[in-house]
């Protein structure tokens, strides 16, 4: 399969490990991704989560960019309503200056946290949804070429022309990405319901822009690749527990895998997991290859972005390497 493939990393803080361990693991994963031929590695903005260390997304991107040479780095994504567009332009403009030609800026509009933490972020919870498109335009303005007499200039940021992506799991984000003529990444790795409708809507509504002449869509999948199906299913129980914890409102570190998930998984949990994680690629290389072909054939995406939700960093690195060989 000659399709660009990329990695999504949440810098997971594993049960029994530290935040420092999580950030070091992200560095190791980025190095492995570059070695294995991944096109880009993105980090996601989340706040107040005991299992995620990438809240200061731009800072962590600098950490992994310094450990690599060629792989593209970016946000998957920055939750723009949490921030002033000028601040994001300065942060990513700094990254683009330090690591020219390697930086992507993926944007989302969810808070990426609970409402109490969102308030602590000074997020404008009263803002209308219409402010998100305006914020995107403002951000593009700061990253572009300053006009004569322009009073507010992002320094760094201006003239970097960092490529923007819109991220989402709804038809709203698909429509907006098409209207703005931007590449679009759909979060089918945890929100699969509207995948095909979003792809169709985005492609049908796409209008060429200065950044993109034609539509470009990336879809997310989770992947756990191991020597055997049994081992992969065992490793996958970590993320299954994570979704069960989220359903119960439990904020915990990323769980160690368990031998028998059924001992802690109710029928309702199992139904939820089967639904949300329907596109997860879990198994031996042959098993994952078969599922992978079917997903790519069905979606006809331009690029695949893969999350590797594995507790043990050695197993995560091995999974990333094995997946790359399938591509």
Automatic annotation (TrEMBL):
GO function terms (MF aspect): oxidoreductase activity, acting on paired donors, with incorporation or reduction of molecular oxygen
- GO terms for CC? cytosol
The UniProt record lists the Luciferase-like domain at: 16-297
CDD domains (alphabetical)? Flavin_utilizing_monoxygenases
Cross-referenced Gene3D superfamilies: Luciferase-like domain
Cited Pfam families: Bac_luciferase
Q: Which family does it belong to?
A: To bacterial alkanal monooxygenase alpha and beta chains.
The record's listing under NCBIfam families reads: oxido_grp_1 (TIGR03558)
Task: Spell out the protein name for this chain.
Answer: Luciferase-like monooxygenase
